[in-house]
Amino acid sequence: MCGIIGIVDKKNCINDLISSLSRLEYRGYDSAGIATLNKNKFVLNKSKGKLSNLRLKIKQKKIMGNIGIGHTRWATHGKPSNDNAHPFLKKNCAIVHNGIIENYSDIKKSLANHKTNYQSSTDTEVVAELMNYLIEEGASPLESMKEITSRIEGNYALVFLVKSSNNLYFSRKGSPLVVGISKTFKCVASDTLALPNKVDNIIYLEEGDIGEIGLDRANIFDRSFNLKENQIHKHSSMQEHTTKRNFKHFMIKEIHYQSKSIDDTLLNFAKKNDEKIYLPQFKFDTKKIDNLSLVACGTAFHACMVSKYWFEEISKINTMVEIASEYRYRENSINKKTLGILVSQSGETMDTIKCLEKMKKQKIHTASIVNVLGSSLSRNSDYIFPTIAGPEIGVASTKAFTAQLTVLALLSLHIAQKKSVIDNKLKKITNEMFKISKNVNSIMKDKKIYMEIAKDLLDSKSIFYVGRGTMYPLALEGALKLKEITYKHCEGYAAGELKHGPLALIEDSVPVIVLAPFDKYFKKTMSNIQEIKARGGEIILITDSEGSKNSENLADKLICLPKSNFITAPIIYSIPVQLIAYYLATLLGTDVDQPRNLAKSVTVE
Ligand code: AGP
Description:
- This protein is an alpha/beta fold.
- The chain is 35% helix and 23% strand.
- The protein has an eight-stranded antiparallel sheet, with helices on one face. A seven-stranded antiparallel sheet has the order 5-6-7-8-12-13-14, with helices on one face.
- The longest helix is centred in the last third of the chain and has 20 residues, at 399-418.
- The radius of gyration is 26 Å and the shape is elongated.
- The two termini are 35 Å apart.
- The site of 2-deoxy-2-amino glucitol-6-phosphate has 15 residues, from helix 9.
């Protein structure tokens, strides 16, 4: 997928253009370019290959300009080359584009009687010629945008730089665009990761929106060219992630941040009431992939275990989940029709990196889900699906975990759509996902109950988490959270597995935290609760309103969460699991953010 950035600044925008393009490299590209307008003169630089080639090219030149556009191109029409790289420059305008203009030949024919000067074989350049012609004919940039968006067909995110104008003009249909606003500059980009760090607020464009930004304006119009007010979202700067503000620990701050990081990740790759998932596209035919092999460590491994249920039940694809430190040494044969997916917050976990190397030797496609762009994993994978959680400081992973789940859920929908196995359910499921942040906020409003549970667990020598389906890996994650920050022994188990041995450990007042939304496993889990109660175990049941009505008063303590479904439950049920561990750790006075013996990123083997 191509990457787009446009900036209007009080100062020279070149460095920000280039650093934004470097944050767009994860989308995959084969050429890059920038165009600026300085003293009403266009300056164009573009080069085939990596961004470093473009950097080298402009290094010797002192390019000035307070307004400019940049692009990383993933070739669709026309091979990777200098000529086919964006931006395209005409006498009156420069353009960058993400998407495909389906009727570009008709538009080219309609311009046949006018002076044109094609340098490439791309669909985008035809739109540049159309814009140039309209401006030449005396139309204003906005009038030209209106005419262009009424004539072109296909999917597009377009950004124009126009001679004699201090504004950028843009429109989206089927390819995302976001506007970034700060006190001193404005920008428009294909995704939030490209936005310069200093952006204060973000506006996501909606289908068919047309917009203009300048130092004195940020206007969005609908298809009928009526001014509209899109929702404004706060953009967290790097500094906001790396200071505790008024929170006692980074961990509780990052737990609180999850409604935003889940939303930011969702909004970057999906839209309400939209049939599409805007993740980077695979260059291979997804239908030809028969297997997924997910590899990770620790919490990231638990995210992969949750996603196994989604990939198998929604994407209908056989999914293996492996612990990296085991997978890397195992002499496994691999089916060439496998996609390797590596999940890592830091992107620097040595065991996971070694698994990527192994997969590359086995010549299978590889994709990484990382929270740190530019990390080793992201630099060396064929595809990158970033989480938008911001830097995670607390050693115990929280916001990165729920962001990993969000990306994995979107990926399962994306693959299901590519394999045509999802019918017309994608829009409904995505819309349900957009309710998660509200549910997380409602859980965070009533933290007292988790503090009480923490008090109840204070003297326990051993604690159990159990669950079925996606709640089983969540039980493992709950146990890990407790272990790593309270230093108490805790076991996570598949609820159906207790009777095969661990039940021997259950005796009077051993606490067992049961994760059980009212789903197809609920009744079975209730009989597991009976088994535990019969041995004197103490039940802390985390369920929803239906579940509490049907729990036959078996719970000694009951937490009622908002209603959830197969996709949203693991993300929503992560919050109580994190809060219980956090409050117990604070009662015990452990070093919550830097627990003993642990590191944030395990870069050793
Ligand atoms: C999570 O709470 C732990 N700190 C740890 O298990 C972590 O998830 C694991 O080390 C993997 O790290 P990564 O996601 O950076 O690869």
